[in-house]
Structures are given as C-alpha cells and as structure tokens.
Design goal:
By secondary structure, this protein is α+β, with helices and mostly antiparallel strands. The chain is built from 7 helices and 9 strands, in the order βββαββααββββαααα. The protein folds into 2 domains: 69 residues, 2-Layer Sandwich (Phosphorylase Kinase, domain 1), CATH 3.30.200; 174 residues, Transferase(Phosphotransferase), domain 1 (Orthogonal Bundle), CATH 1.10.510.10. α3 runs antiparallel to α4, α3 packs antiparallel against α7 and α4 runs antiparallel to α6. It is an enzyme of class 2 (transferase).
Length: 297
C-alpha cells in the first residue's frame, strides 16, 4: 500500500457513498449435524422476524416491525447453547460496569436470544469488501486511526472485567451509521477462569505450540489486536488471498505482511512481537501517534 498522509480533520475529506450491509437472499436454515447430545428442533426464534445472517454458532434474525433490532439465537446444539449462555453472562457483566461506546449495544435478552441494535454497515471486513477494498479504501486514514484506538480501548475495557475475546478480527467489528467501530460476538469468549471455546483465525492467532490461544493469554489477545489494526489500516486481512494453511505456516515462521509504508507500522509490529503488556498500552501508543499527526509510530 502506498504511503498515506494523515488528515487532521476527517470532515475535510468527502468519502464516496457507502453501501449499507444487506443480508443476501437465503433459503431455510438447515438443521445442524446430529450429535453433541442435542437433537434438531425448530429454531427458537422470535415471532415476526426474518433471517438476517447465519453466524458461526447461531442465526441472527431481524425484526420486521423494527428493522433496527436484531436477535441472535443459538443453534440447538449443547455446545452452542453453552457458548450462548457465556455470551449472555459476558454482556451482563460488561453492562453492569457501564458498557463502552465501542461495544455493540445490547437492548435486551429473552427466551429467544440476545437483542442488539443493528449496525448499518455490518462487519468491517464486509464493509471494506463492498466499498472499495484495499485499492480504494472507503474511509480516510484519520478515521481508520481513530478506529484503531477505539478497538484497543474497548478491548482494554473488556480485559479489565475478566473477559478475553479470543477471536478478534475485522469480522467481529461492526460499523454503525455514525461510522463508529463496535466490538461484537462473545460466543466462545473466555470469562474469569473459563477457557475460550474458540480461537482466533489464521493470521490473527498467536503462533504457539501450547493452547495459550484457548485461554487466551494476553500475548495472544494483543497478537490478534496487531493483526486487527493491520486489517483496519490496510483494508485487508493478514496475508489476504492465501489459503488458511499457508497463512498459518507463514505466521509460524515469523513472516508477517510488509508494513514499512503502513500507518502504525511500529505499533502493529510490537503487537506481533509481544512487546506490549496490555491493550491500554497499545491504545496510548496510537493516541500519541494521532496527537502528533504522525503515522509511522
């Protein structure tokens, strides 16, 4: 990616019209595979809704009467139901501590699932793909640097209350109508001494021979943060276009994307090398960069 100039006033840049996320047409949700001790039953979805999208461990429905409201319903498998209960527990705890402006807003929980406000532009990864990608990044650099700091801040908030996300990347960040970045999806995350049920994807997962990504350790979380900062700034995934197995081997061999001409290059590299001890430390480094109007720290 070519070197970019930091624009101090985001309003001075007129971005092209952006496409809001629209759910693709889908057929009926198929039953999950048999096993795991839970037989297939009809999805326990709320009335008067339509399928918005299928997430990894459930289905997100959109209210027909209030399209700004979404309900995340777990697939009826024992492990998925357990992960859903963990997500409820996490959102309850984070809400009791005042929430965070860069955390997806949960409006309620009921017997069907978790109700959330819809983020107009959907997940960051799809937002980039649908609005230009790395060849024509749809938002100015100043906004992307703000997003980087915001993600580090909300991750620090999450960590401070005994939660580790375990799967941080552009697919678990949302962009709302006000162009704020929001952290979402805690199904499979770790809380207190309970290990995560998932791990980060290739390119984001810390290359360890142990299972520290399944706690996950702070080193693992900050490694994923570094890759997420890369995705935010570069508008593409780590080693984009490569097969999962190839990406895993590259990271295991210590081969990361070239960030020499990328904003926040030093911060990203220090996350990958494990030179930070907390997400707050990363956020402060980004803030210093933004305040100085620099892009290479």
């Amino acid at each position: 990616m070519a070197s970019e100039t930091l624009v101090s006033d985001p309003a001075a840049v007129s971005p092209p019209p952006l496409r809001p996320y629209e759910a693709p047409p889908r057929g009926p949700v198929r039953p999950p595979p048999k096993g795991d001790g839970v037989p297939w039953v009809i999805m326990n979805h709320p009335p008067n809704v339509k399928i918005f999208f299928r997430s990894g461990f459930g289905v997100v429905y959109q209210s027909r009467e209030h399209p700004e409201r979404l309900c995340k319903v777990p697939l009826p498998l024992k492990s998925y139901l357990a992960m859903h209960e963990t997500e409820r527990r996490i959102f309850t705890r984070l809400g009791e501590h005042g929430g965070h402006p860069n955390l997806v807003r949960v409006t309620g929980m009921d017997d069907h699932g978790i109700w959330m406000e819809r983020a107009l532009y959907g997940c960051l990864r799809v937002f980039y793909d649908q609005n230009g990608g790395p060849s024509a990044v749809p938002v100015p650099l100043a906004t992307r640097l703000q997003w980087c700091e915001d993600v580090a801040r909300v991750l620090s908030f999450v960590h401070s209350h005994g939660v580790r996300h375990a799967d941080l990347s552009g697919r678990n960040l949302l962009v709302d109508a006000d162009m704020r970045i929001l952290l979402c999806d805690f199904s499979g995350s770790a809380i207190d001494d309970q290990k995560a049920a998932i791990s980060a994807e290739a390119g984001y997962r810390y290359p360890s021979e142990t299972d520290e990504d399944r706690f996950p350790s702070m080193r693992s979380e900050l490694h994923a943060l570094g890759s997420t900062l890369y995705e935010i700034v570069a508008a593409q995934e780590v080693h984009a276009g490569q097969a999962k197995e190839v990406v895993e081997q590259l990271i295991k061999d210590g081969k990361y994307p070239d960030v020499a001409d990328l904003a926040l290059s030093t911060v990203i590299q220090k996350c990958w090398r494990g030179e930070y001890t907390s997400a707050d430390e990363v956020a402060n480094a980004i803030a210093e960069c933004r305040e100085a109007g620099a892009t290479r720290v």
